[in-house]
Specification:
Length: about 325
């Protein structure tokens, strides 16, 4: 048997329960992973509360289909299916299993080979769990719509989370001039990561201050297309990573009738991108920011803290 955090209905973190379940058995193309760390993402929060229509459409209208949240995982392979070729028992691996059923907030999880890669010895399990989803989002976001070019002016809105803290580091590797937007209590931390300019969104609206940016990466997009256009240089690009789902439809329609590059990141978990980020970590050029580490039984408290919007970087769940 294994311990897992399970939920049977949408709601607040109180619906999450620590329980015991049978250890899953890997299919022919899967590995069984003893999970040593997992991290919290916005999708976990959205799937927990179930307020958005698109979440209900994917996860179940009345009750969640997925009973165990968590999809950024790091651990050790303890069993392999007969068709598995890349991994063997004892290998330390990590990856984003969001496309394969989730289940990271548990002592064991099964996953196919495709989303996984080897964890380097220099990387802790906590760091490995903090990197996959947020890191690939940041990397793919900065490559979207033609990509951020060397030396350009970049603005990251909602920069204090996992995507933003990694995005700053990636952008500085391209010598970008980086402006970040978030709450006042996160700005000093963002300066320490390399941000050139900081904006407290409670005091200043970056779409109204007259400054122009070559690239805007928005993790909490809620403004109108017209507002974003005001903040873009003539050849500027805007990429929505997360935010209000109503803006998604507006951007899709806008893209049909305008040549201006404004779009939505279609995130794809990608082991090649993850290996690229792993190489940067090993070179000392990229480090995930971890705010707090919680034991498995405190996943509800971790989700509650996440929902309050206080997180600086990532929250990690340590599973002994």
């Amino acid at each position: 048997m294994m311990k897992a955090i399970v939920y049977q209905q949408y709601g607040s973190p109180e619906v999450l329960q620590l329980t015991e379940l049978p250890i899953p058995k890997p299919k022919d193309n899967e590995v069984l992973i003893k999970t040593y760390a997992a991290s919290v993402n916005s999708w976990d929060w959205d799937a927990l509360i179930g307020e958005q229509f698109v979440i209900r459409l994917i996860s179940g209208f009345f009750r969640p289909k997925k009973k165990i949240l968590g999809f950024d995982i790091a651990g050790q392979v303890t069993a392999v299916g007969k068709k598995v070729k890349r991994f063997k028992v004892g290998d330390e691996v990590f990856g984003d299993i969001s496309a394969y059923g989730w289940g990271g907030f548990a002592e064991y999880v099964c996953a196919p080979e495709a989303p996984l890669t080897f964890k380097p010895p220099s990387m802790t399990f906590e760091q490995a769990a903090a990197l996959p989803h947020a890191g690939v989002l940041a990397l793919q976001g900065l490559r979207c719509q033609g990509g951020l070019q060397t030396g350009q002016k970049l603005l990251i809105n909602g920069a204090g989370g996992g995507v933003g803290t990694l995005g700053i580091q990636l952008a500085k590797l391209q010598q970008a001039e980086v402006t970040v937007v978030d709450r006042a209590d996160k700005l000093e931390m963002l300066r320490g990561l390399g941000a050139d300019h900081v904006i407290d969104y409670t005091k200043e609206d970056f779409t109204q201050n007259g400054k122009l940016y070559d690239f805007v990466l928005d993790n909490v997009a809620r403004r109108s297309i017209a507002a974003y256009k005001r903040a873009l240089s003539p050849q500027g690009r805007f990429v929505m990573v997360g935010g209000d789902m109503r803006l998604v439809l507006s951007l899709l329609l806008y893209g049909l009738f305008s040549a201006k590059k404004m779009g939505i990141l279609a995130h794809q978990p990608n082991p090649e991108d993850l290996d690229y980020l792993k190489g940067l970590f090993e070179a000392g050029s990229l480090v995930p920011v971890i705010d707090k580490v919680y034991p498995l039984e405190e996943v509800p408290e971790a989700l509650r803290y996440f929902g309050e919007g206080n997180v600086k970087g990532k929250l990690v769940i340590r599973i002994p």
